[in-house]
């Protein structure tokens, strides 16, 4: 308990009031398209196996601006197999009746099997300290994938499970394959949109990472940029703009092959919220299961999804 909380408790005790401090807990599962291996049904842990994962949470820059001090347990970073860690993600609590207000955040580590682990304990239970039990929406954010948000769920001290991998009929807020839903990959500049062609394209962001690398003395477009960078869209520890295994392939294919892009328009924009410069189709809501609502954009979204999240536009290039 923090010192301020303890002092508050003492004051309440003196006043004869029984204090109530509560935590709420959560178990959550999600898949990142960039790291997903359709053969195994798991995600790759290349960043971990190459010792590229930062030991402290990496979301302390725009648009995330998260200042938490989570540090990964050394035991967690050496864990192998299905529960090996893939990357860091942010887990946020939003109001039950909207998504524009950030109530609480924690940084968590994502395992190959999709479960989120507490960075300190390595256990599959996330705790939001000082949050009263009640109904909340759960937002999942990743540094180069589109976010997702759940509909309202009841949280208490006993962990509530929220599964973001469950495929929902006609839900296009996530990439769907093999009956599973994955967060869309390709948002290199973390502005909530995957743009493969036209203005503000993520392709240019990716190229900028490669060309401005100090070691790329001749500014070659096919330079192999090794490391933990937001432009590494398939999370294999290498940012490639040209040549085999390029990250551009994933970035360009998602807009063109998006289910709402019936004409395969090159300038289609994938945004959570079904926003597009080319095609706008109203989302279909399946209330039979826990749906994943749209977090951004949402020119066509209905009342079920609340208002679009107010998120500042990030700086052009974050070399993270
Ligand atoms: Ca983008
Ligand atoms: Ca890559």
- Overall spatial form: globular
Which value, in Å, is the CA radius of gyration?
A: 20 Å
**How many individual β-strands?**
18
Count helical runs: 5
Order of helices and strands: HEEEHHEEEEEEEEEEEHEEHEE
Oligomerization state:
single chain
Provide the residue-averaged pLDDT.
Answer: 81
> Largest sheet, if any?
7 strands, antiparallel
Question: Can you tell me the residue ranges where pLDDT is under 50 for at least 5 consecutive residues?
Answer: 274-318
Estimated helix fraction: 10-25%
Structural class: alpha+beta
**Proportion of beta-strand residues:** 15-25%
Distance between the termini: 33 Å
Bound ligands, named by name, code or SMILES = calcium ion
Signal peptide: 1-22
Keywords: Signal
Provide keyphrases for this structure.
alpha+beta; 23% strand; disordered C terminus; 320 residues; 7-stranded antiparallel beta sheet; signal; 3-stranded mixed beta sheet
What's the arrangement of secondary structure elements?
Blueprint: H1 3-14, E1 24-29, E2 36-37, E3 42-43, H2 46-49, H3 74-77, E4 85-95, E5 104-111, E6 116-117, E7 126-128, E8 134-142, E9 145-150, E10 153-155, E11 160-163, E12 175-177, E13 180-182, E14 193-195, H4 202-211, E15 225-226, E16 238-239, H5 247-256, E17 269-271, E18 292-293
Parallel strand pairs: 1-11
Antiparallel strand pairs: 1-7, 2-3, 4-5, 4-8, 5-6, 8-9, 8-10, 9-18, 12-13, 14-17, 15-16
């Amino acid at each position: 308990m923090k010192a301020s909380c303890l002092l508050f408790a003492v004051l309440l005790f003196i006043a004869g009031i029984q204090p109530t401090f509560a935590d709420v807990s959560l178990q959550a599962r999600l898949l990142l398209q960039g790291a997903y291996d359709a053969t195994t049904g798991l995600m790759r842990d290349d960043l971990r196996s190459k010792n590229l994962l930062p030991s402290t949470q990496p979301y302390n820059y725009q648009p995330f601006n998260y200042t938490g001090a989570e540090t990964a347990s050394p035991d967690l970073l050496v864990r192998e197999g299905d529960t090996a860690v893939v990357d860091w993600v942010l887990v946020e609590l939003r109001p039950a009746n909207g998504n524009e207000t950030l109530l609480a955040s924690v940084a968590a580590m994502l395992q190959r099997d999709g479960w989120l682990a507490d960075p300190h304990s390595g256990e599959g239970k996330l705790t939001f300290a000082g949050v009263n039990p009640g109904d909340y929406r759960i937002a999942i954010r990743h540094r180069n994938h589109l976010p997702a948000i759940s509909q309202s769920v009841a949280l208490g001290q006993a962990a509530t499970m929220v599964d973001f991998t469950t495929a929902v009929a006609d839900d296009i807020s996530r990439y769907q394959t093999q009956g599973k839903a994955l967060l869309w990959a390709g948002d290199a500049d973390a502005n909530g949109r995957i743009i493969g062609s036209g203005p503000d394209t993520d392709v240019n962001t990716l190229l900028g990472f490669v060309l401005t690398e100090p070691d790329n003395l001749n500014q070659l477009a096919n330079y192999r940029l090794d490391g933990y960078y937001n432009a590494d869209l398939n999370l294999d520890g290498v940012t490639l703009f040209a040549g085999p295994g390029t990250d551009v392939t994933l970035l360009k294919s998602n807009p063109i092959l998006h289910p709402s892009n019936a004409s395969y328009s090159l300038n289609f924009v994938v945004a959570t919220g079904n926003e597009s410069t080319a095609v706008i189709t109203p989302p279909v809501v399946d209330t039979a299961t826990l749906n994943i609502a749209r977090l951004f954009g949402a020119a066509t979204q209905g009342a079920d999804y609340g208002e679009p999240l107010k998120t500042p536009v990030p700086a052009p290039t974050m070399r993270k």
